[in-house]
Structures are given as structure tokens and as C-alpha cells.
Write a structure and sequence with these properties.
Organism: Thalassospira xiamenensis M-5 = DSM 17429
Structural class: mainly beta
Strand content: over 45%
Keywords: Signal
Radius of gyration: 54 Å
Number of strands: 57
Largest sheet: 6 strands, antiparallel, barrel
Protein name: Secreted protein
């Protein structure tokens, strides 16, 4: 398919704009134009360039501005400061992006010259749907037509300069150049009559065209991830204003993703979490505009897994099972761990049985009751490690006490005490129990006081730090030694040894040894006895006793909390927050665990508008006596002149003076960052006006008045800002 066929097919199938439609007409009819006419029209390559990176819409033509880089045959002065007005679009053909563009006019300093779009067309391939300022655009066009339009633009500018120079020259000449009364110097003046007014066709003026966004919305294009500010063309001619429809303009704002205000979705059936985001853009005023609800990001899916390290094992004594517990967590897009379920029985690790054992436990002796009690504890094996479930306590097995003097072989279990001085023999005995068929002594040899006057005493044995403290059995045993009196002086026959006086252990909680990483604590215990010869005695002081069970923290809920970090999206400030789970420790204090990211706290708009005004400047207009086209109105004048007092009247333009200044608006965020580009507008006061008539066929220029410039007050500036929509 050749270029001409492709061009016609594209334009005939999808052109909408009349301006672009002319391109199709031009191509399809060019073959019918007489060769002589084509040769008379000089077609040249006009090089243009986009002023900013500009997105181009698909199928629908949109207005764009271009800069003139090179116009063959035109001096640089003609293209200086000129903006080329054009319409452009692209079409998708066989997976290629084809750009189509027509030139419709040139503009400079608010003045414009229209061009026949049939004479200026371009079509080229695009890598992406946008015009890059770094890539020139070549338009084939009529050289003579374009140069003539540029000359007219510059001719108007030269006329303005000459008019100002003339006004300055007239002001300098003063009264010497003013025409005097003919009545005083010309004898023929008395016979002069005022000529009839000429009928001058009213100049309808040149139509003015402006592009405005008033009444147009911002169109969100999700396919191209951009928000497009629409604009319309407003034409004023003979006082009548006509408005075009809103079309895509050049101002575009990219759509960005925001994950911070959308939480992840949790699917407990598939055990997966999916990140969510919403699309937003920052408009020209720096304001954040959200355009979608939260959407799933299928590229960010996270597996939910069990975590057992933060949970304790539940001990079920009814079923005699140790049940592993686990929470459910996943690692989110920020590489932070998020908990979706607190500790519950694990689905991956099966419960294990609790086993009753006596290893590490002892036998508790109750000498007053004449019985001993076996103590035991429970253990379980998990992941190849044996764990202790509880502390030693009576397991229900009892052993009665027995006093023995001789063993099974008939031998004395204790050597008798022979006091040669007294000439007596005192037998000794021991108490024993039978454990699993094995005899065990539970006391040392004790003299039988029934035989001799042997006495016991704690004298010299009353230091509790030297006593036998059986923590497993929960009792301490006092010490004693035996003696007899010789001439009233004790004669000790034994060393200090355990007595049958047992002191039960008392415990008090003095604090807790916390393990926040595993959400449990060990009780800190002081073990003591009372009633000793020394009073209270601490056996252990604020220690974790062997076999002390873990006391789990109590879960009390979750809530968000700020973490000291913040960020901005446009003018909107967000304070980052963590999702915290609270656990009550056994001592009543609270332990908080970060389990993930919480939705940020939206603190709203943190931008302010700053307006800076320039120095006030002035300008003036001095009437040249023409009867129409004055910028600030006309004045009427009537008089009688001549010997016959014939009446005369006229209407002329008025002299004018103005005051003005420019305002620059900047949107500044609380951290000093400017949002968007600064905008500058010109504010001008209503002019002061002065009539010019002073005499017959003479006028008074502005320089002859004691004229003044209007006051450029704050009220004037306030009204300007209100008309610009800055309030």
C-alpha cells in the first residue's frame, strides 16, 4: 500500500475535526488540480518544534502550539516570538502510530493571522503518542502564504511603534504646533461653512480568538494513565461570542499509583494477601485528585504462612496433650511482616502427648505425719527437643516412714555411742522408706534417748544458710547435734546434722522476667522460711525457679499508631502509622508489637497561596483626533464660529491614562516546597480620560493637561485576584 493510499484510508475512516478533514480533501483532489497551478504554488518544508512535551490524542484532533524553527525564505526577525497554532492527532494502523497535523494560523503578542489548513499538512510515524521538544516536526506548506501572514503580524507591530513615536513627537512640539483660529488671521474664514460629515463604513474589527479551560472538565484516560485538561475555543466578533466544544488540551497530568491509603486484601481460603492501590494525579494547583477506588495489584501477591516463634505451647491437662500454636503472617511489598491472625492451634504441627516423669524431682518428707511423698512433673517432646511443662509437685505416690536399728543382715545401721566415762552405751537408729523395692534412709543416725540421758540441741547449728534446702520438695530441714552433760558442761557426741524439724517453703512474687519476643514471662520468686532461730531467711531472692512455667501475655487488641514518619502527595500530608497489637504482661504493663503497616493519617491540604506584586507601572494614550476606535471613549463638542455664528459640533476620541502591575501566584507547601508552576497575571485599573476639544479644528493632546494616573489600590488588586479565581 503506497503512502497516498494509506493517507486517504486513514483520513476517510476516522477524521472528525473539520481542520483535519481538509487534509483528506487536499490529498484526494490534488490529482485533479491542473499542473500549471501546482507549479505556481511553492511548497517548502517548514520546520517546527513542540514547546513542551505534549501528548497527542488518538483519532480525536486536539489544539497544540508549536514554535517556528525554520521557514525557508523568511528572515529570523519574522519568526521571532511567533507561535504556530495547529491541530494534531494520531491513528493506529497495522500496529504503527501515524501522526497527522495541520497548521491553522500564526500568533504573536495577542495578534493572530489565520492560515488555510489545506496548505499546511504533515504526516509521520511516532514511537509514542506524544510530541517531544527534542524532535522537530516538518510541515509541507505554501511558502508565500506563510511569509505573507508573518509579514502582516510584524507590520502591525511596526505600525504600533510608529504610532507611539508620532505621539511622542507631537507631545514634544507643544503649543507651537497647535493650529490657531482662522477667524483672526484669514479674512475668508467668515464665509467658511462646516463641511458635511462623511459617511465612513464602520470597521467591524478583526475577530479575536482565545483558548480557555472555563467550563471544561479534566478527562481521565485510564488506558494511557493520564488526566487531560480539556479546553475550548472562544471567538469574539462584532461583540458576539461563540464557543466551541471542549476538547483535549495540552495540559496533562500523569496518573500515579498510591498504595498507602489502600490496605491489602486477605483471602484465608487460598492463604494469600494481595496489595491494592488507587490511581491519582496532582493537578496544576498541586492538589491530589483521586480517580479510582482501591484496585488489586495482581503482580503483588504474598503467601500467608504460619509463624510459631511468637506463640507459646498450650498445655491441655484434660487431654494430657501439648498443643503447638501459631499465628498467620505474610511479608508485604515493603518487606514488613504483617500478622493476619493471632495465636491459635497450629495446622502444620500436630499436638504431642504430655508425659509424667520424676526425673529432676525428689521425695518430700513429712516427719510429723510419718510419710514421704514422691514429686513429679510433665514433659513433652517437640521438634526433637524435650520441654518441661510444669514444676515438680506431689504425684500421689506415698512412702511410710520406718525406724530401723538393724539392717536385713542383722547389723546395726549406726554404730552405738559408747561413753566410757559414763560407762553407758547408747543405741542409734535411722528412718527409712522403701522406693520401688529399694530401701532408702531419709535421716542420719540418731541416738536413742530412751537409753541414756542424751539430748539434742540446735546450739551451733542454727545458721539457716548451712541448712539443707530442698527446693524440689518445698521444705528446709533444721540442723541439730547431740550431747550429754558432764558436770553441767555439754559434751557433744555428734556434728551438726539434719533434724526432723521441717520448715515449709514460702514464696512471694517479686517481679517478672519478660520475654517480649515470645510473648511470655517467667515469675521472679523469693523463696523463704520463717520461724527459724534467726527469724525469716531467704533461700532464693528474685530468681526464676527451676521448672517455673511460662506465663503467656494476654492479647488486648490492635490499633494504629503514628511512627514519626510522614510524606506528601502533592499538597496532602500523610503521617505514616504502624498497626500495633497490644499484649498485657503479667505485671499489668503493656507490650506492643508492630504487625504491619496501618493506613496513613490524612492531615489534608498543607499548602498556602503566596502572591507577590510587582512595582506599579503606567501607560497613556494621546488621541490623534480620529473619530472611532479610541480605547476609552469619545467626547462631544459644540460651538459657534464666524461672523454669522454658524453652529459647529464634533465628536472625538479621549486621551487616557492607566496604572497596572503584575501578580505572581505560587502554591507553597508547609515544608517550603513549591507545588506546580508559578502563574503571573497582569492587573490594570480603569483609565482616567480627558477630552481633547479646545477650539475650532484644534485638539489638546494629553501633554497639555494636568493629567494624572489612576490609583492602583489594594482594592483594585483584590478585584483582579477575584476575577482570576485566586480566592
Amino acid at each position: 500500500m503506497n503512502k497516498r493510499t494509506l493517507w486517504c484510508l486513514l483520513l476517510s475512516s476516522c477524521l472528525v475535526s473539520p481542520a483535519l478533514a481538509q487534509l483528506a480533501q487536499q490529498e484526494t483532489t490534488s490529482s485533479q488540480v491542473e499542473p500549471g497551478i501546482e507549479e505556481m504554488v511553492r511548497k517548502v518544508n517548514i520546520v517546527t518544534r513542540a514547546k513542551t512535551r505534549t501528548a497527542v490524542s488518538e483519532n480525536e484532533p486536539m489544539a497544540i502550539d508549536l514554535g517556528l524553527v525554520d521557514v525557508p525564505g523568511a528572515p529570523p526577525k519574522l519568526t521571532e516570538g511567533v507561535t504556530a497554532k495547529a491541530y494534531a492527532r494520531y491513528v493506529n494502523y497495522e500496529d504503527s502510530l501515524i501522526a497527522q497535523l495541520v497548521l491553522t494560523g500564526v500568533e504573536k503578542d495577542g495578534r493572530s493571522e489565520p492560515l488555510d489548513s489545506n496548505d499546511f499538512v504533515a504526516q509521520f510515524n511516532m514511537d509514542s503518542p506524544e510530541l517531544d521538544p527534542a524532535s522537530p516536526v516538518t510541515i509541507e506548506g505554501n511558502q508565500e502564504t506563510l511569509i505573507a501572514a508573518l509579514q502582516r503580524l510584524n507590520a502591525v507591530e511596526e505600525d504600533d511603534k510608529e504610532e507611539k513615536e508620532t505621539e511622542t513627537a507631537e507631545a514634544d512640539t507643544g503649543a507651537s504646533n497647535t493650529v490657531g483660529s482662522n477667524a483672526s488671521k484669514n479674512a475668508d474664514a467668515a464665509g467658511y461653512s462646516t463641511p458635511a460629515a462623511l459617511d465612513v463604513e464602520e470597521d467591524t474589527g478583526t475577530p479575536t480568538v482565545r483558548v480557555t479551560t472555563e467550563g471544561c472538565n479534566i478527562r481521565v484516560d485510564l488506558a494511557q494513565l493520564v488526566a487531560v485538561q480539556q479546553s475550548r475555543v472562544e471567538t469574539t466578533e462584532d461583540g458576539n461570542v461563540t464557543s466551541g466544544t471542549c476538547e483535549d488540551g495540552a495540559d496533562r497530568y500523569p496518573l500515579d499509583r498510591s498504595y498507602s491509603v489502600c490496605g491489602d486484601t486477605i483471602d484465608m481460603e487460598t492463604r494469600q494477601a494481595t496489595a491494592q492501590y488507587l490511581l491519582y494525579y496532582t493537578d496544576g494547583g498541586g492538589n491530589r485528585q483521586e480517580v479510582t477506588d482501591c484496585l488489586k495489584d495482581e503482580d503483588k501477591v504474598f503467601d500467608i504462612t504460619e509463624k510459631t516463634s511468637a506463640c507459646s505451647v498450650y498445655l491441655d491437662y484434660n487431654e494430657m496433650m501439648a498443643v503447638p500454636q501459631a499465628s498467620l503472617v505474610y511479608v508485604n511489598a515493603s518487606n514488613n511482616e504483617v500478622q493476619v491472625r493471632s495465636c491459635e492451634p497450629s495446622e502444620e504441627i500436630a499436638p504431642v502427648p504430655l508425659i509424667s516423669v520424676t526425673d529432676g524431682c525428689s521425695i518430700r518428707h513429712d516427719f510429723a505425719a510419718g510419710r514421704s511423698y514422691q514429686t513429679g512433673r510433665h514433659i513433652y517432646e517437640l521438634n526433637g527437643t524435650t520441654w518441661q511443662a510444669d514444676a515438680c509437685s506431689d504425684n500421689g505416690t506415698e512412702y511410710p516412714h520406718e525406724t530401723v536399728y538393724k539392717n536385713a543382715a542383722g547389723q546395726e545401721v549406726c554404730a552405738p555411742i559408747i561413753n566410757q566415762a559414763a560407762g553407758t552405751v547408747t543405741r542409734q537408729s535411722r528412718k527409712q522408706i522403701v522406693v520401688n523395692g529399694v530401701e532408702q534412709f531419709i535421716t542420719e543416725c540418731k541416738p536413742d534417748s530412751a537409753n541414756i540421758a542424751i539430748q539434742s540441741t540446735i546450739d551451733g547449728c542454727d545458721n539457716p544458710s548451712l541448712w539443707n534446702h530442698d527446693l524440689a520438695a518445698g521444705a528446709s530441714y533444721g540442723r541439730e547435734r547431740f550431747y550429754y552433760l558432764l558436770d553441767g558442761i555439754p559434751q557433744y557426741v555428734t556434728q551438726c546434722q539434719d533434724s526432723e524439724i521441717a520448715y515449709p517453703h514460702h514464696v512471694e512474687t517479686t517481679g517478672w522476667q519478660t520475654h517480649d519476643d515470645q510473648l511470655f514471662a517467667y515469675r521472679l520468686t523469693t523463696v523463704y522460711i520463717e520461724g527459724t532461730p534467726k527469724g525469716r531467711f531467704n533461700i532464693k531472692t528474685s530468681e526464676v525457679l527451676p521448672g517455673e512455667p511460662q506465663t503467656a501475655y494476654i492479647y488486648s487488641g490492635e490499633s494504629p499508631a503514628t511512627n514519626g514518619e510522614h510524606y506528601y502527595e502533592g499538597c496532602t500530608r500523610f503521617d505514616a502509622r504502624d498497626l500495633m497489637q497490644s499484649y498485657e504482661r503479667p505485671d499489668g504493663s503493656i507490650h506492643k508489637v508492630v504487625i504491619g503497616d496501618a493506613s496513613p493519617l490524612n492531615l489534608g491540604d498543607k499548602c498556602t497561596q503566596q502572591v507577590v506584586w510587582s512595582e506599579v507601572t503606567t501607560r497613556s494614550y494621546s488621541s490623534d483626533g480620529q473619530r472611532s476606535g479610541g480605547p476609552c471613549g469619545t467626547s462631544s463638542y459644540s460651538t459657534t464660529v464666524g461672523s454669522n455664528d454658524s453652529p459647529w459640533s464634533d465628536t472625538r476620541n479621549m486621551n487616557c491614562t492607566w496604572s497596572r502591575s503584575s501578580a505572581t501566584k505560587t502554591i507553597v507547601r508547609e515544608d517550603g516546597v513549591a507545588i506546580g508552576d508559578s502563574v503571573t497575571r497582569l492587573c490594570e485599573t480603569a483609565p482616567n480620560s480627558y477630552p481633547y476639544i479646545v477650539g475650532y479644528f484644534s485638539y489638546k493632546p494629553l501633554s497639555k493637561y494636568n493629567y494624572s494616573f489612576p490609583a492602583h489600590t489594594n482594592a483594585v488588586k483584590t478585584n483582579c485576584m477575584g476575577s482570576w479565581g485566586w480566592w
